[in-house]
Design goal:
By secondary structure, the protein is mainly beta. 0% of the residues lie in helices and 50% in strands. The strands form 2 sheets. Strands 2, 4, 5, 6, 9, 10 and 11 form a 7-stranded mixed β-sheet that branches. Strands 1-3-8-7 form a 4-stranded antiparallel β-sheet, with no helix packed on it.
């Protein structure tokens, strides 16, 4: 049974930083593309970032480019999202996701990812 468990969310002031972690189990972690999505109240879940197998490729939403960094630790079955220069509009529940891919990163839509965590709340105060 695949499990993805996010942690590291919390309350931070605008301009601050947070690092989210997602611990995976029940899958051959190194064979999966990992992604982060977020969902703000009243809005649809949206793509944030993704990282391919072997960390060869990364992809970011325009809104977080140059502020967020996704990384993975295959030995520890964990994917991270380093978030810097946080803005109030970054407030959302952040979800970790995974999909098996031999190479590359799939389209930036929720339908392309097969497994999901329960999310962790990030709140950025102004």
């Amino acid at each position: 049974q695949v499990q993805l468990v996010e942690s590291g969310g919390g309350l931070v002031q605008a301009g601050g930083s947070l690092t989210l972690s997602c611990a995976a189990s029940g899958l051959t972690f190194a064979r999966y593309v990992l992604g982060w999505f977020r969902q703000a109240p009243g809005k649809e879940r949206e793509f944030v970032a993704a990282i391919s197998r072997n960390s060869t490729d990364t992809s970011y939403a325009d809104s977080v480019q140059d502020r967020f960094t996704i990384s993975r630790d295959d030995a520890g079955n964990t994917v991270y999202l380093q978030m810097n220069t946080l803005k109030p509009e970054d407030t959302a529940v952040y979800y970790c996701s995974a999909v098996f891919r031999t190479r590359g990163i799939p389209a930036r839509t929720t339908s392309q990812f097969d497994y999901w965590g329960r999310g962790t709340q990030v709140t950025v105060s102004s």
